[in-house]
Amino acid sequence: MTELVSGASDSDLGAYPTGTSDRSGHQTLKPHAAHWGAFDAVVRDGRVVGVRPFARDPFPGSLIDAVPDVVHAACRVDRAYVRRGWLEGKRAGHLRGGDPFVPVPADRVVRLIAEQVARVRAEVGHEAIFGGSYGWSSAGRFHHARSQLHRFLGLGGGFTAQLNAYSYAAGQALMPHVLGTTEVLLGRVTDWNAIGQHAKLMLCLGGLPLKNGLVTSGGAGATEYTQHFRRAAEAGVRFLNVSPYRADMPDWLNAEWVPIRPGTDTALLLAIAHWMVAEGREDHAFLASHCVGWDKLRAYVMGESDGLAKTPAWAADITGIAADRIIAIARAITAQPTMLTSTWSLQRADYGEQPWWMLTAIAAMLGTIGKPGLGVGFGYGSVNGMGNPRRDYPSFSMPATRNPVGRYIPVARITEMLENPGGSLSYNGREVPLPDTRIIWWSGGNPFHHHQDLNRLLRAWARAETMIVQEPWWTAAARHADIVLPATTTLERNDIASSGRDRFLRAMHQAIAPVGQARNDHDWLADIAEELGYRDRFTEQRDEDAWLRHLFERWRQACARQGVETPDFDSFWAQGYWEAPPPPPEEAYTQFAEFHADPAEHPLDTPSGKVELFSATVAGFGYDDAPGHPVWIPQREWLGAEPAKRFPLHLLSFQPATRLHGQLDPGRVAAADKIAGREPLLMHPEDAAARGLRDGEILKVFNDRGACLAGLRFDDRLLRGVVMMATGAWFDPLQPGMPGSLCVHGNCNVLTADIGTSRLGQGPSAQSCLVEVERFSEALPLVRAHRPPPILEILEGLEPNPR
Ligand SMILES: Nc1nc2c(c(=O)[nH]1)N[C@H]1C(S)=C(S)[C@@H](COP(=O)(O)OP(=O)(O)OC[C@H]3O[C@@H](n4cnc5c(=O)[nH]c(N)nc54)[C@H](O)[C@@H]3O)O[C@H]1N2
Ligand SMILES: Nc1nc2c(c(=O)[nH]1)N[C@H]1C(S)=C(S)[C@@H](COP(=O)(O)OP(=O)(O)OC[C@H]3O[C@@H](n4cnc5c(=O)[nH]c(N)nc54)[C@H](O)[C@@H]3O)O[C@H]1N2
Ligand SMILES: [Mo]
Fold first, then answer.
1. For residue 487, what is the domain's CATH number?
2. Which segments of the chain have a pLDDT < 50?
3. What is the rounded CA–CA span in Å between residue 274 and residue 24?
4. From ligand 2's centre to the CA of 345, what distance in Å?
């Protein structure tokens, strides 16, 4: 593999289509891939100057347009830096984010890190290194930053890890108790062919938002997300969009919109259940043969166990949906074959386990779990690839490394971990001990993007001694670090992209030389491992090329075991991609089909082998925030709650249409969507009129936890009282390092609450958030997030003080 600049040789291009030189002959195309799609990078004079969508992608997304901007952005980390305060010994107890950085030579920074790691390992223990490093990293599977860090820390003795994903942590904890698997939310779900062939109606909580299909974890060669909706609609499926936002479903699906107050779906579902029982529409046979606990759930629904019947009239007050409309929905789903789904967002809220458990219960009452094309599945509207008709081929990956100390926290409990060293927290029936964290190490994720209540995080973050962040860009995580290692972007190295939800394997050719002194994460870690005496165990004495060939060979053998023919590495690399044979167009997959046919022969992996509408296991945990069957518990913050008087707007922070989380934020696609450089806040024009606000104005959005600026965008597709902001505008406090400082750019996580969904799931609960807005009439502060932080040139005489 060559590191190409201009004028590629034949061997660079190989069999890859070469009709790509412009008249000057200096332009080349390099096959590449990212979570936001597959593309060819257009390279001229050592720079990425453009992108062309992958020719085999039927519906390439628009996010790839931002790639050249971000690769060459001014906010690339150009070399290694150490925070001045850290060098002066201002470590544990000092707020990060305020003081400037000092450039430090690469060899010295490697030694500094190795010293700290060795000392903490010896003096405190491996669990004092928090290496959870949650985040999406990049699509390439060898250079996947988080996997590389876990390998490095695991081989060195271990670390404290993070369990589950921000995306669906509550669901990951709950579903094994109910359906015996997490596949129903992240794996191979009933596919769109089956839905199109058998369903007449699809009830979608949270809709099927088009923008979510722009991304696939690991990247996709085929963005087929919308095509499946279209085909299902053409096959006669009608769609119900139950959501506070009409635009969660594309107009062309002609969906019926049922506006619902955020966080109240469980009440709606309980009322549907009540009507079904009252009308005798539940599938008694299925409930008896395939489920346990119906008697207990039934007693709760009818009010026999708690004196409160969950009638449509009861739910109408909570949800804002009229009782007769609730009955009409209940009638519709019982009268025709119906598929049920919910976006992942519903469980990123207080008690987020409940709507998913109750939706599963409705599928059980309908008797449809495992019936062709029916039942329930989560996430059809959340990411490209869910429900893709496919065969299960091996995906290309780094082998997982063991974490010898076996310590972890539930993914979103980081602030609590830092606040409570030596304490513990309840999670899914266990007491999880919290370590005394000394080193926080992030590579491939951005806690100052993804975590809730950033002001609280900022205070807790101060407790550790050393924060190490590996990043290509000066993200907020890098700015709040002590030691910053410049990482290459994928365009500066060779890799292979692969996703379990996509049938293409794609070569990612290095397109340009590393920018500045950026290095591959693997190479940084190999050098640190060398200082610590285990380079060879870390690298297995392979370089990048040898690793890719090795991993490819493993993948190839796994394919061969399934009888799938694959090319050799060199042919694959030259071709730029490999496509798994697509399944025959009529082939359809229904999850739980065997269980449906014979529950005794094919039991679920639950204690009873059946669908657990009441779980003795969960009940046994004794959690009042997640009892043994689905229940309605009002969220701490919602439109019916007490704080709504002071903060009368429900803020939903949804996934951005213009980037992937914080990634690509410095690029043109995200920039074009902003209002005077601030993240838009969507609001119903009447809510705005009631406050005397005009479209396009800059607002201050606030609650007791924090405040940010946002640009007002009218949107009459929203339920009144609900406002929306996308996540991902880089956190930009007016006074860096000061908790509570106004974020001038519009990062919604200064507003969200940091409370676990419940003791069962301990997932993030970002969606339960009330705010108020007002016009911001001061002079607009500069957005500095996309510039490097203050950097001091050389500080003579400042010797690092290891402690
Ligand atoms: N309010 C609110 N907050 C949310 C959510 C919400 O709905 N509302 N959603 C949550 C969800 S579902 C998720 S998944 C999280 C996402 O949170 P994250 O996954 O943490 O967000 P990303 O911005 O994708 O962070 C990935 C980081 O890795 C860096 N990176 C990319 N390539 C490389 C590389 O090769 N090497 C290194 N070292 N770094 C690299 C990128 O620059 C980026 O900063 O956010 C969560 N936060
Ligand atoms: N373009 C783009 N696509 C992405 C991502 C990205 O960053 N950019 N991120 C990816 C990731 S990591 C993930 S986890 C998925 C997340 O996928 P989701 O969680 O499905 O995405 P969201 O946009 O948070 O939420 C979808 C919709 O749910 C609705 N909703 C919110 N709360 C409620 C509620 O209480 N009730 C009802 N009925 N509806 C509600 C909102 O109107 C919102 O528009 O998206 C993935 N797709
Ligand atoms: Mo996610």
1. 3.40.50.740
2. 1-23, 796-797, 800-803
3. 72
4. 5
DSSP 8-state code for residue 663: B
Q: Which atom of ligand 2 is nearest to the CA of 726?
A: 23
Tracing tokens 């962040």 back to the chain, one arrives at 469
The verdict on 219 and 318 lying in the same domain is yes
Residues 442, 410 share a domain: yes
Q: Which residue among 16, 36, 86, 136 is the active-site one?
A: 136
CA dist 529 → 143, 220, 550 (Å): 16, 33, 21
Nearest CA to ligand 2 atom 34: 262
Q: What's the pLDDT tens digit per position in 520-552?
A: 999 999 999 999 999 999 999 999 999 999 999
In degrees and rounded to multiples of 5, residue 652 shows phi and psi of -100, 125
Q: Which listed residue (134, 168, 357, 461) is catalytic?
A: 134
Residue 551 lies in a domain: no
Radius of gyration of the chain from its Cα atoms, rounded to whole angstroms: 26
* Pocket around ligand 2 at a 6 A CB cut-off: 167, 205-206, 209, 211-212, 214-215, 242-245, 248, 260, 262-263, 265, 343-346, 349, 381-383, 652, 654-657, 660-661, 767
pLDDT at 798: 52
Structural domain total, the chain? 4
136 is catalytic: yes
Against a cut of 0.85, is the pTM above it?
A: yes
Please indicate, yes or no, if residue 366 is contained in any of the structural domains. Answer: yes
Q: Specify whether 53 is located in the same domain as 29.
A: yes
Ligand 1, atom 23: nearest CA belongs to which residue? Answer: 662
Asked whether residue 194 falls in the same domain as residue 150, the answer is no
Question: Distance, CA 607 to ligand 1 centroid (Å)?
Answer: 35
Q: Quick one: pLDDT at residue 324? A: 98
Instruction: Clarify whether residues 356 and 490 are in a common domain.
Output: no
What torsion do the CA atoms of 511, 516, 517, 523 make, to the nearest 10 degrees?
Answer: -20
Q: Report the CATH number that the domain containing residue 681 is assigned in CATH.
A: 2.40.40.20
Residue spans of beta strands (DSSP E) within 570-634 = 577-579, 611-612
In SS3 terms, 229-255 reads as HHHHHHCCCEEEEECCEHHHCCHHHCC
Find the angle CA(683)-CA(688)-CA(691) to the nearest 5 degrees: 140
Which ligand 2 atom is nearest residue 657's CA?
A: 1
CA distances, 718 to each of 232, 647, 649, 710 (Å): 26, 18, 12, 17
Evaluate whether residue 576 is within a structural domain: no
Burial of 72 (0-12, 13-18, 19+ CB in 10 A): middle
Domain that holds residue 729: 642-775
Q: Are residues 296 and 229 both part of a single domain?
A: yes
- The pLDDT value recorded for residue 563 is 93
Q: Ligand 3 centroid vs 293 CA: distance in angstroms?
A: 32
- 218-229 confidence digits (pLDDT tens): 999 999 999 999
CA 209 to ligand 3 center in whole angstroms: 14
Residues 373 and 485 both lie in one domain: no
Nearest by Cα to 480 from 794, 733, 116, 768: 733
Is residue 363, in this structure, part of any structural domain at all? Answer: yes
Sheet holding 483-486, edge to edge: 101-103, 81-83, 483-486, 466-471, 439-443, 129-130, 160-163, 407-410
CA end-to-end span of the chain: 43
Q: What CATH code is carried by the domain that includes residue 311?
A: 3.40.228.10
Chain-centroid distance, C-alpha 616: 31
Q: In terms of Cα–Cα distance, which of 146, 48, 144, 74 is closest to 443?
A: 146
- Based on the fold, state whether residues 221 and 120 are members of the same structural domain: no
* Ligand that comes closest to the CA of residue 345: 2
pLDDT of residue 795: 53
Does the active-site annotation cover 134?
Answer: yes
